[in-house]
Structure formats: structure tokens, C-alpha cells
Hints:
The chain is mainly α.
Amino acid sequence: MLSEANFIAAFLVGLLGGVHCVGMCGGIVGALSFGLPEATRQRPLAQLPYLVAYNGGRIGSYVMAGAAMGGISALAMHLLDVRQAQLVLQLFAGGFLILMGLYLAGWWLGLARVEGLGARLWRHIEPLGRRLLPVSTPAHAFVLGLIWGWLPCGLVYSVLIWTLSAGSAGQGALLMLGFGLGTLPNLLLMGVIAARMSGQWMEPEPGFRRAARGRSMNRQRRA
């Protein structure tokens, strides 16, 4: 069974993997935020339902994948001696936690290679996401988030491999839920910042352009 300690560990992996999330998903978050309706971009509170829906769909995909991997581990336990299978799964989980710690610390990047495993699948899924742009409603954003959740990511795939130690579909789903919730603060913050910047840039006289125009006029006066 999934212990509370494992759930917390999965949450911390997602939370501490924020730097990785910025590098991996920053461009996607920015594109989604820039694609919001103009009226929504100009009101920070109006952006929140869309951002929550994006991430809710993404975490939903994580949970489904975790359930599938946990189901595989449950099948293995039925085929093998229960005690032997539990011991193997516990050793596997402990070893994999050490590898993920090294990965997050940047001391060993071997887990990044697992991203290539999902690249072929993503080639078929990614066009579906492009067809859903631009986003018009939170429900629309949720569906797009479901697709986003299958983006090839070494950190996500590493936690998925960890769910093989869960012992059941439900426990695998809970492990991925903990991880997904850990990634939520960083990606929500990125979405708010990106949407705010897009709102300023798209204004009739946006701050960035206004500042650039002011500098240009000052230079002309000095000349």
C-alpha cells in the first residue's frame, strides 16, 4: 500500500522539480496564457479558472498514467509470491528515490533519457493540442491540459516508473496525484506571470512599448 511518506515524497519531488518544470513547460504555459481571450488577459482573477483547468487536465493525465502503471505492478504481484514481490518493489522504490534525488540535484542526468520513450507517442498527440488553440472556455482549457499531460518529460516518466512499486492501480494513481499537486504551485505562478505580461504587451499602449517609445524620443531630443 502507498504510505503517507511516499505521497509526501512524491509531492516534494514535484515541488522541488520546479526548475525543471520551468525549462520543460515554460514555453507551453506562456503560449497557453497568450492564447487566452483578450478580456481575460486584462483581468488577473479571470485568468485563474483557465490556469486551474489547464493544470487540472494535466494532473488528470498523470493520475491515469499512474493507475495504468500501478495496475501493471498489481499484475506482477499476482504472478509472483506476494512477500517476494513486496520486497522487490520496496527495494525498487528506495533505489529509484535515490536516483531521482541525484537527478534533481543535477549530479546524474541518466533519467532524462526516458523522455525519448514517449517521443513517438507525443508526435501523434501534439497535433490534437494545436487544433484546440486558441482556448475559449475553462472546459476547453481542461481538455487541452489532458493532452499537455502526455508531453515527454524525464521527471514525469521517472515518477511513473516509481509507481511500479505502488502495488495497485489506485495506489499508483495516488502517487502521481501527489507528484502533480507538487508541480502545481510553480506552474500556476508561471501561468499568472505569463498572462499578466501578455496583457501588458497587448494593451493599446503597453508598458514595454511605451517605455521603448519614451527612450527613443529622449534620444531624438538629445540629438
